[in-house]
Design a protein that fits this description.
Layout: H1 16-38, H2 45-52, H3 56-63, H4 66-86, H5 94-109, H6 112-123, H7 133-151, H8 158-182, H9 190-204
Helix pairs in contact: 1-2, 1-4, 1-6, 4-5, 4-6, 4-7, 5-9, 8-9
Length: 211
């Protein structure tokens, strides 16, 4: 009987950049997990290194130390927010764009990533010259870029747009903070999110007639 021989798959060598990105991603995820599980004080050097499966020396090599990891988590969180809300299709009807925008934004604010951002800003950034003002500005800049893409066809003066954006972020961050505090006792904020959608529909002049 003729034996069948399968060709041994070649092992693809990853580039240095790929390995670096993977290690950085593990460390950032470790910080987020540590804070999500036990709060800001749980994000110790030892906890971060153990969760990432690396040495603390590796963390220092990539981020310079704990301060660098916290800044990286903030940047990662804001980027994720921009990516989430940026995934809304700008070609949809305005009413649908508003609904999808609020849903995507809430996915971020209700995530472990945002909880980590909240804890870092609350416990660290203000005491170390990082904000919260500069990071608040970064979040609004990310929102403004997406807003221009999604709602650029809406005629609304700049001052009103800024007010609507601040209201949107304040509502979402407030709901998220309440859920963090209430824990398992927190209720689903479906009604509040629908109220936010209704406010945006009114402000942006969406046609809600579905008949």
């Amino acid at each position: 009987m003729q034996r069948i021989q399968l060709e041994t798959p070649r092992r693809v060598r990853r580039s240095h950049a790929d390995r670096t990105a993977e290690t950085r991603g593990k460390i950032i995820s470790a910080v987020i997990e540590a804070i999500a599980k036990g709060g800001f004080r749980n994000a110790t050097a030892n906890e971060i290194a153990q969760r990432a499966g690396v040495t603390w020396g590796a963390v220092q090599h990539h981020f310079g130390g704990k301060d660098g990891t916290l800044v990286a988590v903030l940047e990662d969180s804001f980027n994720r927010f921009a990516e989430r809300v940026g995934s809304v299709d700008p070609k949809l009807a305005l009413d649908r764009r508003i609904s999808d925008f609020v849903d995507r934004a809430w996915e971020h604010f209700d995530s472990a990533h945002y909880r980590s951002t909240f804890e870092i800003l609350l416990n660290y950034a203000g005491e170390n010259g990082l904000g919260p003002q500069p990071w608040q500005s970064t979040l609004f800049e990310a929102l403004q870029r997406t807003w221009a893409s999604l709602f650029g066809d809406v005629e609304l003066d700049r001052a009103r747009v800024s007010a609507v954006q601040r209201y949107t972020i304040s509502t979402l961050s407030g709901l998220a903070s309440f859920r963090f505090i209430a824990g398992d006792a927190a209720s689903d904020p479906a009604v509040e999110l629908e109220l936010l959608k209704d406010t945006l529909r009114r402000e942006l002049g969406a046609n809600t007639d579905r008949t």
